[in-house]
Amino acid sequence: MLSSISLSKVAVGVSLALSGLSSVAYGLYPDEAGRIDWYQAQIGAPTKIVPYTYNETSTGIFAITSRNTLASLNPENGEIAWRQTFGADEPIKTLRVRSSQALTLSGNNETHVRVWDASSGSLAWSFSQPPDANYRRGSGAAEFLEGSGDAVAVVGDSFVRLTPEQTSPVWELPLNATASYKRIVVGKKTAFVLGNARPTKKKPQPRLQVVEVDLETGAVMQKYQFAAEQSLESGRIVVLQSKEYGNYVVWREKKSIVWFVHRLGMPKPEWELYHAKLVQVELMPEDMLTSTLHEVDADPALNESHPRFAMTYTKGDKTKTIVVEMFLKGDALEMRKVVGFRSDDAVLGGCGVAWPKGAKPVGAHAQRAVASVRSADDVSWRVYTDSKEPASSGKLVYDKDTYGPVVSAVPYYVGSEVRVLIQTKGGLLASLVSGSSSPVWFRDESLAHAADMAFLELPAPVSSAEYAAKATDPSVLGSPVTRFILRWVETLRSISSWVTSGFGFFGPASDASASGEAARSVAEQMVPSSPVVVGDHFGFRKLAVFGTSTGVVAALSTQGGVRSWTRFLAENGTAVSIENVFITRPSQAMSSLAPLVTVVGRSQLTGNTVVATLNALTGAPVGDQTLVALDRRHVKVFELPVVDPETSEQLLGLVYQGTEDQQQPQFGIWPSSAQAAKALCSISQPVFFDLGDGSGSTQISGYRALCPKDADELNAWTQGSLLSTATEWNFDLPAGETMISATDYSNGAESTALLGRVLGDRSVLYKYLNPHLVTLATRIGDSGGIAIYLVDRVSGSLLYSTAHENARVTSKQPFLALQTENRVIYQFWQEGAPNVPGAKVHSGSVRGYVTVVADLFESNQADTRDESKVFSSYDLLVPYVVTSAYVSPEPATALGVTRTGSNISTRDVLFGLASNKLLSLPDQMFDPRRPKSAPTKEEQAEGLVQYVAPLPLDPKRVLSHYNSVAGIRRIKSAPTHLESTSLVSVYGLDLFFTRTSPSGTFDQLSPSFSKVNLVVTTMALVVGCLLGGPMVRRKLTNQAWA
């Protein structure tokens, strides 16, 4: 018989085995779909939406967005059918859709005309015009020709006719830079090119210019000017197009109550109309002077007969809008009111529907529609077609603090059903249908404009027993023994739940929550579900807090990308532009202090600095004001190594440029309070910063913030108080050089595991670790070369410099730099062979992108290091620099590096490629000490491999897999609680997140590890001990009696 002690040991062993199984299942199997990595494709906030219906089965919503993207959305569910992204220097100016093709014109002086297949997004044909010396800024327009696949376009300073049958224009007409042409109106045999005339001495006032061109020959039929003091951007002018009536321009002169109507092709206006005749209502002169005109059709060229436009005017304290149609009876012009409505706090939009002759589906609606959307309280909308009564209407309830007010509305058709697509300032696109308060579908495009991001470490999960103990008597948790017992109580509960759930064979609990999320209605999905407030044991679950240039602050869980909360920040209804995101108070387990996130941006009304501090777990504002607007503009903001003793917030330093009265820059802090100022002035080291490292600068200067000597000044500190500064150093660039860029401030969060590099003979090259190091890149005169300077921000000392005479830096070929520990990596375009002192690539004509690596050491002699116990920027220690150059297979748009808790794992260098991939290359590949010949045994022991100039593009090293992550601008990484694993977030146009282990998962069990085998083996050993124990004791007893 087993003793009670033996039985207790067995019970403890079984409990340990089962509890170990439970913890392993929780922590080592988080790699379900969408948890290790996730991807969100976006298009950005639309600046122009063109709904189009060609036949009964072909419909689409085409959009040009503020992220310079052309996209086609499925009108039934809002999914991206296809998209095309354009370069930052190639703005899209024109979008036209006809039949099964979409026409775009993009670029400034160098112009590109492209025709896309409307269903697939593939390029059908294109034409590019080289830069033109006579180009006038703003010019550019394109239109399809009716009844053919040809197009006409204003490219550079020329008007051309293009055809897919040939690569050169059918004809080309020089415009001689007499106007900035922005509009083309195509008639039956001629085309009218409209533009803002170039001012002259005889005619200095603005006016419109028209060139009428024969479509067959390209000959100028006539050229004239009209509409004095008008421009195409004026709110008092519209261009009306009609296939039956012809084409017209309607405008009102400034401070005039008369509207002029001009038929294009006639040098003088044909009609003059007063408001009473125009809109069939009597208005007082002061009401008339408030009137503006609006084009309501998304594509006016689709109008078959009566062109339609809208007029908005103010009468008393009310704003009204009237939609009118133009009719011709012989030579008489008549404007008939279609519908009128009050339009306070309203947006207006319209659409045209085109059916080819004989192709109109039976029963389908082909009316042009006008939508009016008001958003004073809830969103209410109405759609008008040919009747004064709305054809459809509805309401939408949503949180304006999340998405902001409505800024545009466009009606469109899905079959015979009319819908309204609304857009808000916060980036929400929602499709509304009559009879439902819930949108049919929605898209959140706010994070396509992300400007900065920060990871929030969530508090580790604690047991419910610990929470209960904290609620009853918090002092109980002061004993580690008590906490250990409470955790075991929770473990036993988990084991009980695991057993009752069928030993986990019926699926994880997370599946239920996932299905619950999918079961939420569209309206419910617009509102983020309960905030993610607790992390996990391994630090995989964090919050990625984004700030956007459109005023949105949003937090996403790193597990699945689920939106935790969203906050829209606006000043007097205008979104602020957020530039920086800081976690100013981290999470603390079981603490009453919530973590805080502080965003810093600029007002789009005044350009001054705005600051907002939010609860990082819920997005709720902290304090009385959601947004604090300062009365000055900052030029730089960075974290300070000081914590506010009152709020436990990390202080931020804001640098303000000098004024006429105060030439020196000034220094402010946030939070700005007397206690925070005292804390800043109590630290032993002063605060240093530099100015002049922006693009185009020729001098960089270093400054020191000066604390007041009088304690009364600190006691009287208020929110508007500032510190004066003193100039520490000036660094003048050589003549002809201008600044390109500088690396960001280090926030001190980067840890270093090894102080040196262990060589093959066991000696050490000690790293040069300078937290104040900054890498400056400058452009060398007109030749286009670049110079690199490594400068100490505190002392202004020049530590290293080099030049690349063959380098070229343009908007299409940008310069990128990354600085980590003792290494600097930068990439640029090169026209010839690299000119890098000590580089491995010396001969040959290398034309392409070059990546240069520079490692900094304290000395070129092994086992030699600075013996100072405290680092000082004023020490005369010049680093020993080893460099190497590599040929990049593709241009990069962003650089990053992986980070782990102690940085014991090797680091991977991350490249955001122009081909929309995220590439990860091992740190070993960038070691500048790689030998050119086969490595020796000592070099092999050091881990060096033979130098090869081209960097490999290994598909197995592409972290984004098959996902096309468009427009990568920034790469950020964060450590987890496992030293092997780093979290990586990529954002630009799209969002992508993943986990990576550069040195392998050495601190985790493999996913192929069998838990069942472990339990079976453990139980078999226990059973074996139970069965074999009595036999062994009996044998020993018999031997003792023998």
Characterization of this structure:
With 1042 residues, this protein is mostly beta strands. Helices cover 13% and strands 40% of the residues. The chain has 12 helices and 66 strands. The strands form 18 sheets. Strands 56, 57, 58, 59 and 60 form a 5-stranded antiparallel beta sheet that branches. Strand 65 and strand 66 form a beta hairpin. It is globular.
Q: What's this, in brief?
A:
By secondary structure, the protein is mostly beta strands.
How much helical structure, as a percent, in the residues? 10-25%
Structural class: mainly beta
Largest sheet entry = 5 strands, antiparallel
What global shape is seen? globular
Ends distance: 23 Å
Count of alpha/pi helices: 12
The overall average pLDDT, rounded, is 82
Q: Identify low-pLDDT runs.
A: 1-33, 353-366, 504-519, 839-844
Portion of residues in beta strands equals 35-45%
Which radius of gyration do the C-alpha atoms yield?
34 Å
Find the count of extended strands (DSSP E, 2+ residues).
66
